[in-house]
Amino acid sequence: MEEMRLHPALNAARYTFLILLAALFVIPIVFVAFTALKTRADLASHPFYYFPEKIQWGNFLKAWQQGKMSLYMKNTAFICLVKVPLGILIEALAAFALTRLKFKWSNGMFAFFLVGMMVPMQATLVPLNIFLHKTNLVNTYPGLFFIYVGFGIPFGILILRGFFRTIPKELDEAALIDGCGDFGKFFRIIVPLALPAIATLVIFDFMATWNEFLLAQIFITDDKMKLITTGLMSFRGERATDYPLLNAGVLISIVPTLVVYLLFQKYFVSGLAGSVKG
Amino acid sequence: MKKWMCALVSVLLAALLLSACGSSSNNSNGGTNTGKQSSQPAAGEKVKLSIWVLNANWDWVEKAVEDYRAVDPNLEVEVTHYETDPIKEALKVAASSRTLPDMWFTWGGSLGSFYPENGLTLDLTQVAQDHKWSEIYNKAALDMATYDGKVAGIPIHLNVLGMWYPKSVFEQAKLAPPKTFAEFEASLETLKQSGVVPLAFGSKGGWHTMRLTEQLLEHFAGPELHDKLSNLEASWNDPAVVKTFEKLSEYTDKGYFPKGYSSLDPAEADNLIYQKQAGMVSEGTWFDGTISSEGFDNTEFDVFKFPTDQKPERATVFSEMFQLNAELQGAKKDAAIKFGEYLTSAEVMNKYPGRSPAVLNANMPPEMPHLKTLLDHANDGGFLITDQALPQEVVQKLFEAQDKVAFKEWTPQQAAEEMEKAAAAYKAKSK
Questions:
Q1: What is the pLDDT of residues B102-153, one digit of tens each?
Q2: I need a surface site. Which of A99, A211, B152, B316 has the fewest CB within 10 A?
């Protein structure tokens, strides 16, 4: 497809607009980086947007060690590596059933799943706390998996159902003729074709799980089991916050989400587009 | 194929469930041992206590637990640390689901009153009498751990607030700490003329500026009416309240606050003090430590008592305490009380200093050069800090009133009326 040629003035305007838009997103990260590279006295003595007086690369090491970040990142990575594939498998199976298996009330059931998106997490804290205490699951990762998977299901089904519906039914029929059962259809036909949607979901789900704070702070209280979001809070005191170390910690903590995004980004737009079109 | 897959998935899910239940049994949280399930050991048996405390600067608790083994080798303490806001949230969730730990840290006032009001804390009145707590703890701290005449906590910290100022700024402006309210107002003008921000308050969140509002209210209303207002026993639509808001409006108009102070973060407002670009700020007994941790020398600063021109001239105070679970019984209850008394004792305070003790006879740590001065400020008496004295709904209205008066959206009279409406609504609701 030939690119539309724009008048040079319009092109300049377009680039200026895009640069300004990019700056809007980049500037906060630059200030986070500035803060991460300052001493506390430097931060207190100059406005936050000033370049550091003397760059403190050591803050990253300090944040890593003082904030026990290797432990907390390992814990969070473990949670994500179990939760994200498990959640997506369940969501994909449900979306497959909703789009491919003919049963009564499949639309009603889809609506029922969507109701889950409307329940605010805060409203569920007390019942979940009672449930986890009764099942002895407080301060355990399996307890957290159940809740995370549960909260992830509605969004996952929404995305995957939309995408699965764009896959022609004729493929199912062909698979049936070739002797595929439902699981064969799911694993050999639907999943490979839905990879863009799954990749999109991996990005969203990984980010949501990595950044989750509320449930982790209530249900994981053992210091050795804390996740990265709750671990970063250790830089906040009762009346003072170590902003340079906190910001250094934040910058370190976003690396894994960035890596996951870069790995799966080529599928990102097509995955989203497919799911919305459906 | 289909059946085989179904069976596999079922087995996997069952295994996950079983592993979940199994792994949790030896990993139970601090907040699980309350209620009917908790076993109450007989004397001499091993006792296990769970305690929730804050995180930053609270690592001394583990050390004190270690020390305590010499006193009671049978006691095993499970310490869980939370940050400031998370502990409030976790306690509320635990209280609602009846999974509170055996002991927990809390602030006094309306933050701590929730638990005794709902029958969740041990009544320590008799213990306080038997163990002569009135001779051990500061009276103000003990009073603030008492609700409806019942002692509901073991006080650990007593915090007193005062007006902190950089000495060099006062020297440059040729000022001495003001002794009267008129002198205080004159010093604001002098500071303004000398090119610094007179009052380093940041209204983001409301509580920082509130510390000035409550002093103005103490000045205009006097101790008696101020206490009645805090207890919602007098109408907030009072000339003293109107005058308080008028002063806030006047100080805003005269440029005594930092630019854009309504949305300024308190930490940024404090920065102006460290940088010696501002004249004064209301901070408390912790501020020596805060100044040092921000990389500045706390001996370059000093503190004076806000001159309210009232008798007694009271300071803003608030306390922190340990509350004990109402469901503790027998040997476990005794062990928890004894351990709580130990954690708050002068011995522990002296060994792990850097805090403002509620216990009498604790040493004054050299790294907190202003601690004694501030504690002495409370000798004339103190009034509870407003965001702990008032119900939270009314506190939020006060924060709103401060902002709207600054923005000229409300007149001081309107602000007083709105405060009264909020107070009346709260009283009607809690009837």
A1: 999 999 887 888 999 999 999 999 999 999 999 999 888 898 899 989 999 9
A2: A211
Claim to verify: residue B169 and residue B129 sit in the same structural domain: no
A230 touches chain B (CB under 8 A): yes
Residue B361 in any domain: the answer is: no
Interface of B with A in 272-291 (CB under 8 A): 274-275, 286, 289-290
- Considering only CB atoms, A137 lies closest to which of B24, B84, B275, namely B24
Report how far residue B14's alpha carbon sits from residue B11's, in angstroms, rounded to the nearest whole number. Answer: 5
Q: Which domain holds residue B60?
A: 39-159+318-351
- Picking from B28, B96, B293, the nearest residue to A136 by CB comes out as B28
Q: Which residue of A has its CA nearest to B25?
A: A136
State the ipTM, two decimals. Answer: 0.73
Tell me the per-residue pLDDT of B366-412, one tens digit each, with 9 for 90 and over: 889 999 999 889 888 889 999 889 988 899 999 999 999 999 999 99
Mutate to test the interface with B, among A136, A144, A223 (most CBs of B within 10 A): A136
Those of residues 77-96 in B touching chain A at CB distance below 8 A are: 80-84, 86, 89-90, 93-94, 96
Question: Which CATH superfamily groups domain A67-277?
Answer: MetI-like (1.10.3720.10)
CB of B55 within 8 A of CB of B81? yes
In a domain, B367, yes or no: no
Chain A contact for B2 (CB, 8 A cutoff)? yes
**A222: which chain B residues are within 8 Å (Cβ-Cβ)?**
27, 29, 80
CATH number at residue B118: 3.40.190.10
